[in-house]
Amino acid sequence: MTTHYPIGRPGIPWSDDEKKQWFEMQSIKRTYQDEVLHKLPFLPSVFKSEQYGALPIDTERYPLMAITPVNPDPALPYMLITGGVHGYETSGVQGALDFALNHAQAYSHLVNLIILPCISPWGYETINRWGANAVDPNRSFTAESDSFEAKAALQYVKALSVEPIMHIDLHETTDTDNSEFRPALSARDAVEQAVWQIPDGFYLVADSQAPEIDFQKAIIKAVEQVTHIADADDKGNIIGAPILYQGVIGYDKKALNLCAGMTNARFVTTTEVYPDSPRTDAKNCIDAQVAAIKAAVDFALERGV
């Protein structure tokens, strides 16, 4: 059971006043400029960065950026990599950037890579799950979305008019999920949210409607060479969901309006790294994300083309 959150009254959903109060409690803890934007000029020459929008809270500070091939080859498949849907999940952002800077060129003659490394830059700076309007982008990938971050990313990908064969969405599960974000969700919506045992280790969330278990297995096999895989809890679940395979659970991506459900890609997964584990560190978490991306691309190239 969640505890009382310091904003709002128990049993009453937040009004705009409570959402404004929540927003005013947030503070800048790191800079999108230094940790994301300043890295984009160093992309390999076969890639470019392009702006697909900007957050209305500060359009100069928060341009929304994508990494794409300079000369996409229409004969090659497309694959989508997304990070930072939840801004507080650091290794997703930095893993996407590390892959783009140091590994993507090796695939440039095999696949057209589309990388959105930091979908929620305000969330990244304030280390938040939500956007500035107290909306979770990762439940909001619809054309009528209240999340500017999710709506802008969805519109950009749709405007490309291509159908990716693979989409990997990079996330983390942190201790603050129980200490901050689920209690905040409970208070905002006046709906009790159960907390769960935070899994110690890496795991994947497949699309329960088309899990492609061999694809998930290939990623787990690659990542376990880098970091440890999460075990099930004492109920045989991970974050309340039953195990499909070691370190793999499933969600209905489209029904939940998740980022990983925004295309019709055959191979879909969401990574979840646990950065608070005593068995890992920031670099290891980034390395795990990179290993997952490479394994996902390799598998999709082998089986999907």
**What do the pLDDT scores average to?**
96
CATH fold field value: Aminopeptidase
Q: The biggest beta sheet, please?
A: 6 strands, mixed
State the fourth-level CATH superfamily.
Zn peptidases
Under the CATH scheme, the architecture is 3-Layer(aba) Sandwich
* Poorly predicted runs of 5 or more residues: none
Following the backbone from N to C, one meets helices and strands in this order, namely: HHEEEHEHHEHEHEEEEH
At the first level of CATH, the class is Alpha Beta
Number of separate helices: 8
What's a quick, concise take on this entry?
The protein is α/β, with parallel strands linked by helices.
Write the layout of secondary structure elements.
Blueprint: H1 16-25, H2 32-35, E1 47-54, E2 63-69, E3 78-83, H3 90-102, E4 112-116, H4 121-126, H5 148-159, E5 166-172, H6 176-189, E6 203-207, H7 213-223, E7 237-238, E8 241-242, E9 248-251, E10 267-273, H8 282-304
Parallel strand pairs: 3-4, 3-5, 5-10, 6-9
Antiparallel strand pairs: 1-2, 6-10, 7-8
Helix pairs in contact: 3-8, 7-8
Active site: 272
Family: Belongs to the peptidase M14 family.
Keywords: Hydrolase, Metal-binding, Zinc
